[in-house]
Amino acid sequence: MAKRITDQSGKASSTDFEISDDGFEKYKFQMKNRQNRFTGIMGGIGAAFIALIAWAGIMQLTGYKLDWMALATGYCIGYAIRFFGKAVEPSPFGYVAGALALLCSLAGNLLTACIIFSHIKKDSFLSLLMQLNVSSALYFLKAVIGPFDVIFCLGAIFLAYYFSFKKIKE
Questions:
Q1: What is the pLDDT of residues 12-68, one digit of tens each?
Q2: In a domain, 3, yes or no
Q3: Distance of CA 47 to the CA centre of its chain
Q4: pLDDT tens-digit profile of 9-27?
Q5: 153: domain range?
Q6: Which whole-number Å values give the CA distances from 36 to 54, 79, 111, 117, in the listed order?
Q7: Least confident of 4-18, 61-75, 97-111, 135-149
Q8: What is the pTM for the complete model shown?
């Protein structure tokens, strides 16, 4: 059976067309075949790096610890994965986006801590970043992360997952 698509007034026009019931399934199949996991994931990684640089740059310029930047990074990662990967399925795009958002939130908070401590020590940010090891990174994260950081990190994971693939509606 076919469905007749008409304009908003309900009147037939020259732009009317019919969609067969199996047409949606064909469209869905074509969309799934157009997906590209590699470019989607690479686009998400690139967006994560750009978002981290922006997070650190804004923190350096303003001098404020901006927890909401995690949400912005989550959105950027999710949108980049959907755009570059032409994603329509949550697996693996949504899961990779959530993992990248988590890593990006942790790295953003670590960069924030490094900027704060470089201002306190009156030292260069890059020299402090070069001296960073696992134990000092954990120390910095413990010193900086609070309850709002956890909430914004969870929000970033949700946004990255939600925006990482296009929902196909009939």
A1: 555 555 556 677 777 777 777 888 899 999 999 999 999 999 999 998 888 888 889
A2: no
A3: 7
A4: 655 555 555 556 677 777 7
A5: 33-163
A6: 27, 14, 31, 41
A7: 4-18
A8: 0.79
Q: What is the tally of structural domains in the chain?
A: 1
Q: Are 48 and 98 in contact (CB under 8 A)?
A: no
Is the residue at 169 inside a domain?
no
> Is 90 contained in some domain?
yes
DSSP letters spanning the chain: -EEEE--TTS---TT-EEEEHHHHHHHHHHHHHH--HHHHHHHHHHHHHHHHHHHHHHHHHH----TTHHHHHHHHHHHHHHHHHT--SSTTHHHHHHHHHHHHHHHHHHHHHHHHHHHHHT--HHHHHHT--HHHHHHHHHHH--HHHHHHHHHHHHHHHHHSSPPP--
Structure tokens at 12: 């037939």
Tell me if 52 is assigned to some domain: yes
